[in-house]
Amino acid sequence: MGAAVEYPGLVVAQGRVEVKGLRIIAILRDWSKTQAQKSTDYPQLPIVVFDIPLWDIAKQEEFIKSRLDLHHSASMLPDDEIPPCSPEERWAKPTTWAVMKEGRKTAVKVCDTEEEAESMCDATINYLLLNAREKIRAV
């Protein structure tokens, strides 16, 4: 979301328009009415609006400068010494443990720790499955 947040400063610097707010209007193409009826945690409509906080000009400039400095520093390094992006920068999902039962395609429960998952094991639970961090965006 970094790009969306600093963009208003670039627009203002060009003198084109006054930015009063930022929003993401997400259209949920795989939205399910049935899921919405079953769960209050599921989006209740196929369109969701997210307000994005505006940064003041100083914060925008600081962010852009820090990212440019980071890229410039990395461009001076050999490829094998370039530091990897952080999990947050890659939009990585956290590592979880799925408690599985033979014959089921979905987990009985998804746990944050191996210990929590192991504590659920009994005669009916057959195995645990590690869900490693999923990278949403390229490294």
Tell me what the structure shows.
The protein has 139 residues and is α+β, with helices and mostly antiparallel strands. It folds into two domains: 2-81, no CATH class; 85-139, no CATH class. 31% of the residues lie in helices and 18% in strands. It has four helices and five strands, in the order αβαβαββαβ. The chain has helices spanning 2-13, 33-38, 57-75, 114-119; strands at residues 22-27, 47-52, 96-100, 109-111, 127-131. The strands form two sheets. Strands 4-3-5 form a three-stranded antiparallel β-sheet. Strands 1-2 form a two-stranded antiparallel ribbon. A hairpin with an 8-residue loop joins β3 (96-100) and β4. The longest helix has 19 residues, at 57-75. The relative contact order is 0.12. The model is unreliable at 1-5 and 135-139 (pLDDT under 50).
List key phrases describing it:
alpha+beta; 2 domains; disordered C terminus; two-stranded antiparallel ribbon; disordered N terminus; 5 strands; single chain
> What's the assembly state of these chains?
single chain
Q: What's the number of domains?
A: 2
Structural class designation: alpha+beta
Radius of gyration: 22 Å
Strand count:
5
Sheet with the most strands, sense and barrel status: 3 strands, antiparallel
Number of helices: 4
In one word, what is the shape? Answer: flat
Low-confidence runs of at least 5 consecutive residues = 1-5, 135-139
Mean pLDDT rating: 81
Strand order of the largest sheet: 4-3-5
Query: Helical residue percent?
Result: 25-40%
- Give the H and E element order: HEHEHEEHE
Percent of residues in beta strands: 15-25%
Distance between the termini: 16 Å
